[in-house]
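Progress note, project year one: complex with MD3.
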Amino acid sequence: MFTLDLFADQPRSTGERRQLGPGAWLLEGFAFEQAAELLAAIEAVQAESPFRHLVTPGGFTMSVAMTNCGRLGWASDLSGYRYSPLDPLTRAPWPPLPEVFATLAASAAITAGYPPFEPDACLINAYAPGARLSLHQDKDEQDLAAPIVSVSLGLPAVFLFGGHKRNDPVTRYHLQHGDVVVWGGEDRLRFHGVSPVKAGEHPLVGNRRLNLTFRKVTA
Ligand code: MD3
Ligand code: FE
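Model obtained:
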């Protein structure tokens, strides 16, 4: 399958592996064939731990809705960011990491040249049209040697990839349904974000974008 996007300097076709930085790889369409299975697993997770809009320590409500699965989950409130074994909403453990998630995350890390990857947390982000994620670093994890693996499903998004300082210039990448990105090494602490998602209708996912990020929190 061949798809041409609107970024003339970034031609792409499914199956290509593009290096975005010394430790960052875009695996185009890597999760495409498992999308239906991944969506069913997300449904099961959200039935137990629903999507919710978290409040940042600064008092803003995030436009992205989130839930988690795995041994640990990421959460935010007025007192800070933290990983916790319990869902603060249900006060129960987060749902376990579905088998299809664990297998996909491990094979993506291997494909990008990283050693065996066993994530202990998976954050699931849901973007309704207009939702965005402002520039930030992921630094709440203790194990910064392990990569982060991210999977995009549904509506496309413009991903902003910055530098090590908030004001460093950003490069824009168009992420599509089925794309997987692996971020590690020198790129692990780069600032990144997502531009407001444009309205649309994805045949499998509907009018939203879903993103899974697999993390190794404890070393
Ligand atoms: C680059 N999610 O959940 S995934 C996040 O599309 C997050 O929902 C975005 O950033 C999303 O924290 C982007 C890609 C990603 C994740 C972690 C990174 C890129 C990264 C860590 C370092 C550098
Ligand atoms: Fe992030």
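The pocket of fe (iii) ion (ligand 2) is lined by residues 136, 138, 192 (CB under 6 Å).
The first helix runs from residue 35 to 48.
No further modelling is planned for this target in the current period.
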